[in-house]
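Dear Dr. H.,

I hope your travels went smoothly. While you were away I took the liberty of generating a structure for the chain from your last submission, since the lab meeting agenda had it listed for discussion. I wanted you to have the full record in hand beforehand rather than looking at slides cold. The sequence, exactly as received, is reproduced here:
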Amino acid sequence: MITLSDLILELNKAFEENALNFDLVKSLMTNYNSNREEWEQYAMFSSDSYTRNLVHEGNGKFNLVVLCWEKNQGSRIHSHAKSHCFMKVLEGKIHEERYDWPPKEQKSASECGQNELVCKTSSIFNRNDLIYICGKQVLEVSIFHPWFR
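The corresponding predicted structure, in token form, is as follows:
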């Protein structure tokens, strides 16, 4: 297992190259075991919506953030267009739903009512689970379940 400081150091090394070393990043994220004392200073909440709290800007090729949801908050349906997202559950549970991409005649997911989208998968992830999302034709929404708050 590695510490948050080690994770940041190793991610900076992993992102020195222009091409993503998927297996290395996945391994690093998997080997980080959540330690509240290391990330609690970045866990800032809002009763209005989830928050994105910067931990490290990386080397211009990635951002390491702590996302915080209050009980029963969620994020809107969105895509990770042209990006890779590795999400580690630090505490609590995340309920994630993935949807089929809207038909080609629609310019974006926001033009499509939620009733028109087809849910492909619905998953619950627990503490220390790693979630990977690639921006290729995937829409997703995350809903957070209670944790240490």
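Two observations you may find useful: The domain at 4-145 is CATH 2.60.120.10 (Jelly Rolls). DSSP finds three helices and eight strands in the chain.

With kind regards,
E. W.
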